[in-house]
Design brief:
homodimer; alpha/beta; Metallo-beta-lactamase, Chain A; seven-stranded mixed sheet
Chain lengths: ~325, ~325
Amino acid sequence: MRVIPLGTSSGRPTVARHVSGLAVDLGRSWILIDCGEGTQQQIMRSPLKPSRLAAILITHLHGDHVLGLPGLLGTLGMEGRTAPLQIVGVDGIGRWLDVMCDLPILGIDFPMTLTELVDDSLDGVAGEPLHVADVDGFAVYALALRHRVPAFGYRIVEPDRPGHIDIDAARRAGVTNGPDLGRLQRGESVIGSLGEVRPAQVIGPQRRGLAVTVLGDTARCDASVSLAFDADLLVHECTYANADQDLAERWKHSTPADATWVANQAGVGHLVLNHFSTRYDDPSLLLNEARTAFVNTTLANELAPIDVPAADPT
Amino acid sequence: MRVIPLGTSSGRPTVARHVSGLAVDLGRSWILIDCGEGTQQQIMRSPLKPSRLAAILITHLHGDHVLGLPGLLGTLGMEGRTAPLQIVGVDGIGRWLDVMCDLPILGIDFPMTLTELVDDSLDGVAGEPLHVADVDGFAVYALALRHRVPAFGYRIVEPDRPGHIDIDAARRAGVTNGPDLGRLQRGESVIGSLGEVRPAQVIGPQRRGLAVTVLGDTARCDASVSLAFDADLLVHECTYANADQDLAERWKHSTPADATWVANQAGVGHLVLNHFSTRYDDPSLLLNEARTAFVNTTLANELAPIDVPAADPT
């Protein structure tokens, strides 16, 4: 898995930065999280293939997170897409897409499935993430966060992977050839030179799949911790610097102190910050503040891929 | 007056080109014609001041001409705009804006006036352009063109200007001082050294104001000629090359032969082509074809201003 930030600016674009959009590349396919204006052009500038886009997850219905969606859908249609596309969004997005399909604004003739999430509390309490989609074997979970409008974060989880094979143990049990080792790794028993060998004899415990949590706009909240718990990578918004905590509270956004609090509480492997207010010409101020509280923090850099570290090989 | 193309690509953007948007700079204020995705960022890259944007004219409701509108409106609001904004568009645009204001997608708190134009014929017959707006003393006219959906072109007309003053005739009539010459030019009579002098004695005929006609998507039609008649500048779409006339007819777009036919029929001063299909890496092919039929043709070049020639000083 790897993450490619497409837009990192909060609220509106600048000459150099785009509004929200982020790709999670699963290998054979990829997921787009949020689709602000200009995202389709950023996709063209990236190595992502539009034909392999499998799902779009929308965190909330503020313009800077969704206004690129109809343009992207229109372009996918013009490119002749026939493959289905999953869209998970927030209650109301279907009504918006419908009025554009009813007018000539948007013509789409490939199949789409739309899931609309509902939250009326806006309080971002801790909870069990909801399983909202499956994409190419990866499970997608959502949980409501704490923003001015209903807003969801997403967690994308790779399937658990088979344990490592103990080659020495296999050899001692009389299995040496490659195809038999492969069968054991896939969970099949084989007949070695000393008799039957079962996978449990030579294969270590299943390894947990990688988990990536991407939050949209949110103030500090316990739901973010629930959604990011033990994740390999957390992408957390960081709109304001610590000195502007009053603005963060007023607009229900986060500071480095907020994002690192979530990263520490959840015990994530790597924290990536995005969604920078246009008031900061250089968001490295935000990075410096964050690193004092969570060392393994980086800034999302548009079009620069971030590899998700391999799960602990135990 | 001058025209600044902001987007010249048909249907979808490329890495290098943007979808439709074009500014007509009136001096103190400016008019935006069409607002495809990415237009607000192109405005940031241009010398245009968003605070001086007085009106937005939308030619038709295809996504590549309108999907940048909500983002631009949202950004104007975030920048603290309080001045009113005129929008002239096509029937249905209000319903689309309404659903976004009803959802949290779009928050606008500056005054807007919206005029929706209706056309059910799609046949682009000749006719008298409709006076649809006044912007900073300039009159805006519209006429329905010939496209797959209701589509309008616009004509922006500078007010007529006073005639030139004949300094020698004024001197012979006994008027020599500057303030009196100014009063005569503003249409007032003055008392010269030889008695009363009326403006008609020394001022030439009123000079016609400049006229700029900008068409959105259209096939060749007589309405384009009506709207462009005697204009100083005509911006005509040129989606396809002459060899692709079948595509132009199928999708109701134009070729160099179509655009130059309109320019010649209307007797315009200068023809600018835009809205190039992404199938042509280099639209200079279109320019070369057009110049064989209308010499004073240029290609719209994103962010490169085009001065509108001064009216004939007669």
